[in-house]
Amino acid sequence: MDFKIITPSDELWNQARDYAEQCSWRAGKSLADAMDNQLFTEWERVIVALDHQRICGYCTAAKTDCIADLPYTPYIGYLFVDEEYRGNRLSQKLMRCAMDYLQAIGFDRVYLITDHENLYEKYGFVIIDRKMAPWGSVEKIYMRQIR
């Protein structure tokens, strides 16, 4: 399994964009739109997991996430693993890749927003806040130290 941290100039960008748009998770279309509209700037990245050049999962390292006007940054967002690859700790490996990248560029903590229960705690994340998402549900905001 390989992990690539990509930007719009990378040859994998369009392949990752297409994979996100066609994946089974409805938020994938939102990621594809963000990639189309060049919403990844400065240090923001898309991280893909590759199994023999086949994309099998992704996440992002970004300044913001789905809830506007929060005082937290950076975020791990859009974490998705293809159904065929679940159960192999691929999400953990994607998060580790994102955290290593964010630490390398100077961040000492990372955040994520989710409605999942008892998933991210096992990776060292703690709930620090709860906020209403644009789609009307209260989401948990997690934080983890990365230094």
Q: Count of helical segments?
A: 3
Q: Which word captures the global form? A: globular
Strand content: 25-35%
Distance between the first and last residues' Cα: 25 Å
Return the average pLDDT rounded to an integer. Answer: 95
Describe the structure.
This protein has helices spanning 13-22, 27-36, 90-104; strands at 2-6, 45-51, 54-62, 75-81, 109-114, 126-132, 138-145. The model has no long low-confidence stretch (mean pLDDT 95). The protein is built from 3 helices and 7 strands, in the order βααβββαβββ. By secondary structure, the protein is α+β, with helices and mostly antiparallel strands. A hairpin with a 5-residue loop joins β6 and β7 (138-145). 24% of the residues lie in helices and 33% in strands. α1 packs antiparallel against α2. It has one domain (2-145): Aminopeptidase (3-Layer(aba) Sandwich).
Task: Please outline what is shown here.
The chain has 147 residues and is α+β, with helices and mostly antiparallel strands. Helices cover 24% and strands 33% of the residues.
